[in-house]
Amino acid sequence: MTDGARRAYRHEMAAAKAATGGDDRWRHLERAHIVSQPDPWLHTCNHAAMLALALRQRDRGEALGQALRILVAAPGSMTGRYPEGNTGRVSAGLKTPMRTPTDLAVALAE
């Protein structure tokens, strides 16, 4: 994982924690997910944070999906088998690649 991606991850996770609304929290967690995918530990931690938010919001479908993603996050990162740009939400699908926002693409390339 690049230093730029690690900085972006920390920034987005801090922003998620400081966010006052659920939609803002999800947006920051999704952005953190994109940059965390190459790192098994951070990728798993990100899904744990997503699970915690889903539980807080009593979203059973999202919580179940995040529990599954916690199990596959580290192996996916270690083998490089993760969908680039994927936001990590249940609605995004487990294997669906997505467009990486330009600022995060730069951080991943640094």
Overview in brief:
By secondary structure, the chain is mostly helical. It is built from 5 helices and no strands.
Topology readout:
Layout: H1 3-18, H2 22-36, H3 40-56, H4 60-79, H5 102-109
Shape: globular
Largest sheet: none
Summarize model confidence as the mean pLDDT.
96
Poorly predicted parts: none
The structural class is mainly alpha
The rounded Rg comes to 13 Å
How many domain modules?
1
- State the assembly state of the protein chains: single chain
How many β-strand stretches? 0
Give the SSE string.
HHHHH
Helix content class: 55-70%
Report the β-strand fraction as a percent range: under 5%
Distance between the termini: 9 Å
Q: Tell me the number of helical segments per DSSP (H or I, 4 or more residues long).
A: 5
Fold and architecture overview:
- By secondary structure, the chain is mainly α.
- It has one domain.
- The protein is built from 5 helices and no strands.
- The longest helix is centred in the middle third of the chain and has 20 residues, at 60-79.
- The chain is globular.
- This is DUF3703 domain-containing protein.
Which key phrases capture this entry?
69% helix, mainly alpha, DUF3703 domain-containing protein, DUF3703, 110 residues
